[in-house]
Design brief:
With about 525 residues, the protein is of the alpha/beta class. The chain is built from 17 helices and 27 strands. Strand 13, helix 11 and strand 14 form a beta-alpha-beta unit.
Length: about 525
């Protein structure tokens, strides 16, 4: 987290929140369980909390953990940390106690802000400050009396004048840390600097992003705020004047009611969430004509799901591929692309993003060859916090991000995923990539979602065990039907040897398929 000698600029989140407070005033920025927060209140509360943080010793470059529920307090805390030139790192409260403790220890934060219900199991030596839900401030009664002055008196202190001027930052000052999901090993902390936040804003908003103000709309917050999709994109959400509607716990019925009530036009979801929404009886009783576009990421979209969603919502459907390390931007299909693209491709590079398929020496491969998918853009993380070895493994010298995903690319630039090397299993001497088998299963009209995992076998070494969610749970497709269907798409040795039916697939807190949990679940269902 080095400091630059380049010309200084205003810290992007702090500056935007200040301007948004003046432009949007009493418009709600967040509606959540901890209350309604307006843009004007956000600006004012962030100043007060920044003074409290400064009095607790938080300074430029320090790391501050945000172990808070998604809502107004979280947003106020993020802006307050930015006002001091410090770095905020969201820690999802949906993680288990040991997982949260691991991330706090990894972060080695100067301070962690947390909800009073989330104190159990935190590292004993960690510096903790409590925010009561809806307070927008540190609870002085929950810390040593001398540690924090009341926010009201703090606002009249000299420190308040410093905060009101906003921290002046450099382009490569660190600003945000996002933790990876840890589905492929120990979670890592991806660092984003001011320059990356600007890059993400430019890719998402397009040309003239720095001059855009307003034009926003109500949004349904479908993931935790600690996720890269909120932590790094919050600046441009505020720039547009969006209103974020947060559910304490995601439920299809609640999501549909919020969409209808607030006339939400864009649904940002993962495919399993969308499948649950389409199953809900509220789909036929609510006016959902407001929905004009659906953005689905985090999991594969079956062609049948794309077709049904487009028909019933009357909306365009775009599949997105990205990662924590890519800044939540990467590859996309067009909203009006053929539904078969959901099976065959994740689309083409978005404007501002470069894509290539490379071999193990990072040399580009020819069209149609399978290799590692690599991305490069101004949005790609700067580094992993305090982990130069992992950073070296993830980024080439010229800053191509090694995604770890295998893929090929056709002559038009469309990317076809082939799975991850780490997920491959060997059946009778043949390599099988689960993603390829899952894509074939998803083309069956009776399959909503699918995962394929290896199952040990004394003769062949490993067999393919498929776990599917069926369109009609009362009459799910049989193994024979799935194999017959898939035999026209992939080699027979790749077809699943066994199948189990599940009501849903396990997801991580980032709403991505949790393969480790899926393997455990599938084997339990098979052996039950």
């Amino acid at each position: 987290m080095t400091k630059s000698r380049c010309p200084t600029i205003r810290a992007v989140l702090s500056e935007i929140a200040r301007e948004a407070g003046q432009r949007f005033g009493d418009r709600a920025v967040v509606v959540a369980a901890d209350g309604v927060l307006t843009y004007e209140e956000l600006d004012r509360a962030a100043d007060a909390l920044a003074v409290q943080l400064s009095q607790r010793g938080v300074a430029r470059g320090d790391r501050v953990g945000l172990l808070l529920p998604s809502g107004g307090d979280w947003v106020v805390a993020a802006v307050a940390v930015s006002r001091l030139g410090a770095v905020f790192a969201g820690i999802s409260p949906t993680l288990s106690v040991p997982e949260r403790a691991t991330l706090i220890s990894l972060l080695a934060a100067r301070l962690t802000l947390t909800d009073p219900t989330l104190l159990d199991g935190l590292p004993l030596r960690a510096e903790i400050a409590v925010m009561k839900p809806g307070s927008r401030a540190i609870d002085s009664a929950a810390v040593e009396p001398a540690a924090v002055e009341p926010a009201a008196s703090a606002l009249s202190s000299p420190a308040a004048d410093h905060v009101a001027a906003d921290h002046v930052a450099a382009e490569n000052d660190a600003a945000v840390i996002c933790f990876t999901s840890g589905t492929t090993g120990q979670p890592k902390a991806a660092v984003y600097c001011i320059s990356q936040l600007r890059g993400i804003q430019s890719i998402d908003l397009g040309p003239g992003a720095e001059q855009r103000w307003g034009g926003g709309s109500p949004m349904l917050a479908s993931t935790q705020f600690a996720h890269v999709g909120m932590s790094t994109k919050l600046p441009w959400y505020l720039r547009l004047g969006n209103t974020l509607h947060v559910m304490p716990r995601w439920r299809a019925e609640d999501a549909l009611q919020l969409v209808a009530q607030h006339r939400i036009s864009t649904l940002g979801v993962v495919a399993p969430q969308l499948a649950l929404m389409l199953r809900s009886p509220l789909m036929d009783s609510l006016d959902l004509s407001c929905v004009t576009s659906i953005i689905a990421g985090g999991a594969a979209s079956a062609p049948s799901l794309i077709r049904e969603a487009r028909e019933r919502f009357g909306a365009g459907y775009s599949i997105r591929y990205s990662s924590t390390e890519s800044g939540g931007v990467g590859i996309a299909t067009a909203f009006d692309s053929p539904e078969e693209d959901g099976l065959q491709t994740v689309g083409i590079a978005r404007p501002g993003v470069e894509v290539r398929i490379a071999d193990e020496q990072d040399s580009p491969l020819q069209t149609g060859e399978v290799g590692e998918l690599q991305l490069r853009s101004a949005a790609v993380m700067q580094q992993y916090w305090n982990d130069p070895s992992a950073t070296h493994s993830a980024l080439t010298a010229d800053r191509w991000l090694r995604t770890g995903d295998l893929a090929s690319m056709d002559s038009t630039g469309r990317v076809m995923l082939a799975g991850r090397r780490s997920e491959m299993y060997i059946r009778g001497g043949y390599n099988v990539f689960p993603a390829e088998v899952e894509a074939a299963l998803l083309e069956h009209p009776g399959v909503i979602s699918a995962v394929v995992v290896p199952y040990p076998d004394e003769i062949l070494g490993e067999l393919g065990l498929a776990m599917i969610c069926a369109q009609d749970p009362e009459r799910p497709p049989t193994l024979e039907e799935l194999r017959e269907h898939g035999s026209h798409l992939i080699a027979k040795y790749k077809l699943p040897d066994m199948v189990v039916i599940a009501p849903s697939l396990p997801l991580t807190t980032a709403q991505k398929l949790d393969r480790a949990a899926a393997q455990t679940m599938a084997i339990k269902l098979l052996e039950a």
